[in-house]
Structures are given as C-alpha cells and as structure tokens.
C-alpha cells in the first residue's frame, strides 16, 4: 500500500512518546507565554502591528514575485540598509525566513571541494544547509574551538566554520572570538546564526557578533531571523558586500523563492527602529532570564544558566516532559517542550523564553507553576 511505511513510523513515535501535534492558539490567549520567541515583547506592539498594516496597505498582501523579479520593494532595501547599519555589517540581504537564510549562506559559501566544519549542537537549518551544500561536512564537538582547529588542519583549500551564536536548546553561547581565531589561522570563513542573539546580546541588542568584536569583519558572515526579537517574520544574511552580491547570484533560496511579504517587512522595520530608540529592552530580556534561572534553581530544579534569553529545565524523559508541559498549560502557563530529535544530546527539557516585558510577578508565577507541576 502506498505510504504504508508512514503508519509504522507513526506507531514508533507513539511508543517513544514523540508524537507532535498542532495546537492553534486564540488571539486573546489567557496563558502566560514563556513558549514563544518574542524576546522583546514586540510582536503585538502597536508600532509594529501598524508597521505591518501600513506596509500591506501600501505594497499589497504579497510581494508578488521573487526578489529578482518583482519581490523587492523600496521597503525591503530600507530594512536591509538599517539592519546592516544596526548590526555593524557592510551589507544585508533579507529572505522569506531564517531557515531560508541559513540554507542560502551555507550552500552558497560551501561549494564543491570546500570543507564545512559544523558544531554538533547547530540548529536544523544549518544542518540542512550542510547536507545540501556541495562541500564536504565535518561535525565537531559542541563549542570546541580546538576541534575546529583540528578539522581545518586536515583540509587544504576553501573552508567555512558554521555555528549558532546562541544555541537554541540550552541557550549557551558559542565561543565566537576563539572560533574566529581558529578560522583565521587556516584562512577559513566564519558563518554564524545569530537568531537568538539579535535583539538580546551586544550593545542595545546589536547581536553576538557585535558583542564579540566580529561585526563588519571581512571573514565573518552572520544570519538572523526577524521572527524572534523583532516580532515579525523572515530572515537576513549580514556580511561583506561581495558576499551579499554572491548570494544574490548564487543562493537558490533567494533566487527561486518569493520575496518576504510587505507586512512582515514593515513590521520588522518598525521593530528595529523601536529597538534603536529603546535599547534597554535587550538588557531587560537578559535580566528576566537570570531571574527565571535563579528562581528555578532555588526551587530545586535543574536549570541551565542562560547566556541570553533561553532558559532550559531538564525533564526525566520525553513522556514526562510532555506531561509536565501539559500540566503547566492547565495551570495557565505556556512553555516549550523539547524532545528528541530536536535535542542533540537526547535529553528532554522544558524550554522557557525570557521576555523583556515580563513583570516580576509573572516571573514568580512561572517559577511557582513549574515547581508545583514537576514530575
């Protein structure tokens, strides 16, 4: 029977407690949200939603084509110019998603005959970029610059090192300065995904590369998503102008994909300008993460110390992680639930988002609910 193997895989997922389901949320959810990636609390900010509405009224509901045909509006180029200036890079290129941006960066910068050195804890989009690239990939230990050095030493020719700046599972930061040093010793480029750093780390939220003194370097390329701190949708690649020009001509997820919708573009631009005016939001997100971690550990829970705005709480098993998250929801708290294969170490956990707009009372409530519902 066609697709009969799907039933076998579905059964295996059920037995392993790894079934995933969609849960549509209402516009006015009563839950305290610690599950989204809205780090700065901007997704519903009046300036951001008005930016989206105004762009849709001006440019239409869709971008109408690929970026190279009709999908580039004046709004897109405005966003790219301001993102590059804010993050400290020479140029920027906006994509329809952060996933598409990562695929573009890795595949276009990892040609045939090159070596791609990839951190074992990288996000799925970077991993898929490595799989689709024509270069060879070597996976190295998590956040281990010495392993990167050893991998680069085995290859003569073009090479890039790819890594998250803040890893999405536990929220730990990559040693960017040490990675850049290893790359420069071997003439390799460094490509980093700053999805969880933009808006949270660096001066006023300018990102992890900026904080590490790497923004604008000729051998560093950064990607980011517009759907987390900026409360919108889409992705961006930041780097030297010649790299961005190369992506325009070689990146398949740019050439053959419809451009980012005007509403998302307008929302991201409004959020960026708001962050420029209110840089304190970035520091507040980090403060909330620290307060959550302190409360959880005081309550006897195993929580990983956050380097940015992600707080991870270990769970005993995939099944208990699911039940724990469900019990939190019943108690009025939405939390993330990460299980294999989403976690590279096989350890299930609750994943909490520290939002800049959370009050002290809301932080205390979240800690209390998580503690009271623990397995």
Describe the protein's architecture and organization.
By secondary structure, the chain is an alpha/beta fold. The chain is built from 14 helices and twelve strands. It has helices spanning 4-16, 46-59, 74-87, 98-109, 124-132, 145-153, 176-185, 208-211, 241-250, 252-255, 262-277, 280-298, 318-330, 360-372, and strands at residues 32-34, 91-95, 115-119, 136-140, 159-164, 189-193, 220-225, 235-239, 303-304, 310-314, 333-338, 349-353. It has a seven-stranded mixed beta sheet, sandwiched between helices. The protein is globular, with a radius of gyration of 21 Å.
* Helix content estimate: 40-55%
Q: How many DSSP helices?
A: 14
Oligomer: single chain
What fraction of the residues are assigned to beta strands by DSSP? 15-25%
What is the first-to-last residue Cα distance?
Answer: 41 Å
SS class: alpha/beta
Count of extended strands: 12
Taking the sheet with the most strands, its summary is:
7 strands, mixed
Low-pLDDT stretches are none
Strand order of the largest sheet: 2-8-7-6-5-3-4
Shape: globular
Order of helices and strands: HEHHEHEHEHEHEHEEHHHHEEHEEH
Radius of gyration: 21 Å
């Amino acid at each position: 029977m066609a697709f009969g193997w799907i039933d076998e895989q579905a059964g295996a997922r059920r037995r392993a407690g790894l079934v995933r389901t969609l849960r549509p949320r209402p516009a006015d959810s009563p839950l305290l949200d610690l599950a989204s990636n809205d780090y700065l609390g901007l997704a519903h900010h009046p300036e951001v939603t008005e930016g989206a509405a105004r762009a849709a009224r001006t440019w239409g509901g869709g971008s109408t084509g690929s970026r190279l045909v009709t999908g580039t509006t004046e709004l897109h180029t405005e966003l790219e110019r301001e993102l590059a200036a804010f993050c400290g890079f020479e140029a920027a290129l906006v994509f329809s998603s952060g996933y598409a941006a990562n695929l573009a960066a890795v595949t276009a910068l990892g040609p045939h005959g090159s070596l791609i050195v990839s951190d074992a804890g990288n996000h799925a989009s970077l991993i898929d970029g490595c799989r689709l690239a024509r270069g060879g990939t070597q996976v190295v230990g998590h956040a281990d610059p010495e392993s990167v050095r050893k991998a680069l030493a085995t290859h003569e020719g073009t090479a890039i090192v790819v890594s998250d700046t803040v890893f999405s599972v536990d929220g730990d930061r990559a040693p960017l300065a040490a990675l850049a040093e290893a790359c420069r010793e071997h003439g390799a480029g460094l490509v980093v995904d700053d999805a969880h750093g933009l808006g949270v780390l660096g001066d006023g939220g300018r990102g992890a590369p900026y904080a590490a003194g790497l923004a604008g370097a000729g051998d560093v390329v950064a990607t980011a998503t517009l759907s987390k701190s900026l409360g919108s949708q889409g992705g961006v690649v930041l780097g030297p102008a010649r790299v961005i020009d190369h992506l325009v001509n070689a990146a398949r997820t740019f050439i053959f994909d419809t451009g980012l919708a005007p509403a998302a573009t307008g929302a991201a631009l409004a959020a960026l300008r708001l962050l420029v005016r209110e840089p304190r939001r970035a520091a507040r997100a980090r403060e909330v993460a620290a307060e959550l971690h302190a409360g959880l550990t005081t309550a006897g829970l195993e929580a990983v110390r956050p380097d940015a705005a992600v707080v991870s709480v270990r769970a005993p098993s995939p099944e208990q992680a699911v039940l724990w998250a469900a019990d939190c929801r019943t108690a009025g708290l939405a939390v993330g639930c990460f299980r294999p294969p989403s976690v590279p170490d096989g350890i299930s956990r609750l994943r909490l988002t520290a939002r800049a707009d959370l009050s002290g009372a809301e932080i205390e409530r979240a800690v209390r609910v998580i503690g009271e519902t623990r397995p």
